[in-house]
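Lab manual, section 2.4: Encoding a predicted structure.

Procedure: take the sequence of the chain (630 residues), apply the prediction step described in section 2.3, and record the output as structure tokens. A sample record is shown.
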Amino acid sequence: MLTDGTDNARFKTFSRRAAILGGAQLLVFGGLASRMYYLQVLKSSEYQMLAEENRVNMRLLAPLRGEILDRFGTVLASNRQNFRVLLIPEQTPDIEETLTKLNRVVPLSETQWKRVLRDARRSPAFLPITVSENLSWQQFAQVNIHEPDLAGIEPDVGETRHYPHGPALAHVVGYVAPVSENDLGDEDPLLKLPGFRIGKSGLERRLDRELRGAAGASHVEVNAYGRVIRELSKDPGTPGSKVVLTLDMDLQKFATERLAGEAAAAVVMDIHNGEVLASVSTPAYDPNDFNVGLSQATWNGLIENPYKPLVNKTIAGQYPPGSTFKMIVAAAAVDSGLINPNQKVHCTGKITLGNHDFHCWKRHGHGYVNMLESIMHSCDIYFYEIAKKIGIDRIEEMAHKFGLGETYEYEVPGEKPGLVPSRGWKRATTGAPWQQGETLIAGIGQGYLLTTPLQLAVMTSRLANGGKAVKPRLVRSVGDEGRFGEPAEPIGVSERALAIAREGMNLVSNHPRGTAFRARLNEPGMSLAGKTGTAQVRRITRAERESGVLTNEEVEWRRRDHALFVAYAPVEDPRYAVSVVVEHGGSGSRTAAPVARDIMRLALERDPSNRLAQAPQGPANSQIPSFQEG
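Recorded output:
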């Protein structure tokens, strides 16, 4: 009986524990079931969305960069196929062995080799690495043929920038290059795309946003490791805007060829609306080289070249204007009322101020000359005398009216203002007062005065267009948006002063005794009015003269004078202005004037509004006209 009671008690205890355990299991199972119901039924749509987001990635796509065209539709910058070779590290057991094999098909530089190994260490193994690009079709075909033996190598076709005219437009259009650390302040996500390029100089830089376009997107399915399985959808994005320039590529190319071998610049400008038809700086560089990557040797050659091919001389080359400035001094003298243009000054070859002699370029002088004759002969003594009478303040004011010492918000970056000196400028710069001798030197365009070739073209345009404050512009349209200059306001110079300056330029080019008569235009319907200039770089010393060095051509190149010439045409109905500067070219009449004449001839020939006359234009009347006092 005792045993049966004990067993019964144990059974009851076990049953109670089993019930408790069973109840607990039931509660746990019920909780799990309700949680599963909550997740799989009530929250199923939310988690399906999250799963989809984890499965689908969006990848940015670079848009096509906008083209740049000249005024007639000639392509100046475009995009073309870029045959390249990619390496996917996870698909090769030995990267160095793969590169060794590839090197037999496409030679790789040491720099490329090191870069690929570096990128392979830093990037996920499934991301492609660019090994080499801009391959020729033959090289690309060879890579495709040998692809089965090149583990991890993938031939690919992308887009790259192309400049069909090479150096002829390097300083205007500029170039693109890979994004640098300094560019990453821009929040555009495109800049973080591997291999993406942005404008680094010229119009490519100034209009980079417009040319860049908007990114596209590719939605791709990826696995748990982020590797692409397939593309689900693709939006190519918005291509960059097409940019049309005012340039005439044929004229640009001709001017470039005409200045070949020189350190020089030339600008051709429409005097009425400011459109720049040609903007040439020589020598230049090939912008395509920057796109694919310069070798160290090529870079060293550019920066060590004494002709400075990296400098855009049209806007950043600053030169004394020399005698091309004499029209400005003449205009200041006329409008001052202190000078009678018909009154003659006796040029004996030098004048003395204090204990210093100021010489004319013609050693024995020009004799008696009035204002027109002094412009025609480029007599220094005449302009020393009138500069002394009217003073630096009037000269400075007139120079600014003609656009000197100014910048114009020109579309190409890097514009320099030049320098128009004043009393205040000198005191602020040197702490010394202005000296009268410095006024004399300014009167012939020397001393502190500095101008750019673009400024000289603007100065000449304002002389020729009746004194309107025209400004240069290079862009006609961006996309569908036309760009038009503001109406040019009068600069506040009398017509009489302008007429005397223009007639003086006419005599320079078309009078038999003018300094540029040999470089005149004599074709039907074509006549040119110009002004020569020689900007002194250094004086020939007494010791050099005593040793037999008497002319500019006898000193080393970098010490020779600069040669300048400015002109407008046609004389009867002006349309274009041209400026030419040849660094260390010596004489403006011998070096710069013939170049300007040839460039202007082509500009007039290509002008559809220029109706050629039936007979050639003869030289100007040998009688120098007089102007009534007013």
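Check your result against the sample. The two ends are 154 Å apart (CA to CA).
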